[in-house]
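Batch job 17 of 40 flagged for manual review because the log was empty.
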Amino acid sequence: MIAHMKFWFRLAVLSSCVIGAWAQPTAPTAEPPPPQSALDAVLFYQILLGELNTRQGSPGSGFSIMLDAARKTRDPALFQRAVDMALQARSGDAALQAAQSWKREIPSATEASRYVLQILLALNRIEDAGKALAVSINELPLDEQPGAIASVPRLFGMVQDKSLAADVVEKALTQAFTQARTAAAAWTTVGRMRREAGQITKAVAAATQGHATDPQATGPLVLALSLMASSNSTLKPMVDAAMTTDVNPELRLGYARTLVSLQLYPDAIAQLVQLNGRHPQFAEGWLIHGLVLQEKGQLPEAEKRLEQYVRLIANSRTPEHQAGLAEALMSLAHMAQKQGQLDRANRWLSQMPAGTDPIKLASRQADLLAQQGHLDEARRVLAQVKPANAEQALRKILAQSHWLREHREVQAAYTLVRAALDKKPDDTELLTELSLVCEKLKRFDEMEALLRQLMAKAPQEAHAFNALGYSLADRNIRLDEARQLIEKAVQLTPQDAYIQDSLGWVMFRQGRHPEALRILQAAYKSRPDAEIAAHLGEVLWATGQTREAGTIWREGLLLKADNETLVETLQRFNFKP
């Protein structure tokens, strides 16, 4: 994109950001009497001449005439018209000249300050824009400043040098840091910009400082939630302390979601218990609580909370509640199916709202039919879904392949996914799925090639490193390489229980039984899962703790009785539950 086109693109976006973000609603007032016109005949014809020049294709000449008239009359409307003419002439420098002249002639004109700021940003004069930002904010009434400060990251979002933008904004907000009304908003804004610049340590410091200036402000806490994956030990105590008060339910729910993403399930559940108790009409709290309990295998308690969510939103038709209803009903059907209550599962599915994701619904229906022994009908249900777009078409293929893998029709899954991948050879989801299919078919060389391709395409994604490392460890080959791959996955996603399971398993394969036991016990505590139970039980058995191994294996069977790894392990040890 050539330079002047970049300017106009930035200016178009920035104009809507600045004016939209800082526009304040005003109460209706009585119509003032018309002012005495400052125009004499000469000025009238001067303005008319400027407009005619612009209309006749000479906006540069029209601009000069209009700016001269604006300076003579000190009329804000004429200054704004001069700026508009310069923009029409695609002259950023002329537009800046007009806006700055407007501000000099009428120092109280806040609109002029905003124009100066947006034009400087469009011209990529970032440091000058920082000075203009300080002026624009400081001249606002104090009660309007926090909102304006909160809009700054969006305003500076198109600046390429994120570190420079953060430095400039922090300097511009110097005065805001010193005032109780604006300090928390200022630190939150700086923290957001430091985060976008990849300066996580500085972003964490800003969140901490913002919370210290105003413990009741939500901005620093929301910022802290977004940073917890990178700085859990520093920020979690601060957020925990804030949560001892009756905070906004949305904030507590956000914290619970963050804890779930970090796999800190007991802490997440504790927050959700508080949320349900303090705000029993807040429906989303019941939904997330139910889903988390389902994930943890606490099915009766999960059902109670999901049913409460369904009751609370029974009369709501908002898109958010309809999407939540579909999620709740899908989970209730899944839990009923898992407990062998197939009629109840069908009843839940029959209540699905219009607009339910057709792929998810068909997948659940297919699983239910398969459990009843209707395999051909189950396949047809998935095959007959009509995707509405390319994204749904891809998800349909992935859902079909997953179903085929689960029901031992792996060659059919391979044919399906390979054909799709031939059309979209760089699609990471198809590459991942085909690697899983190849493992089932024991086509290990092809699986490794696919995973290596994924590592090259997405080096920050842990899955491929973990999958290849685990496969090597499970086959008891190239164990040093397997461990390196899994440790890379741990580095990328340190809290993932499944990756920790892989690490424990490769340690066991290397004969490091105490380390393997410690890692697998922690992984199983974090996420009770049938496959982790299989590995933990085997390590316990190998270290002579056969009774404990049997207990863990039985728990694993309760979690998922048909897990292939667990079933194979029990057969190998001739263990009868």
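Reviewer: the log was empty due to a logging misconfiguration, but the result itself is present. Confidence is low (pLDDT under 50) at residues 1-21, 23-37. Unflagging and moving on to job 18.
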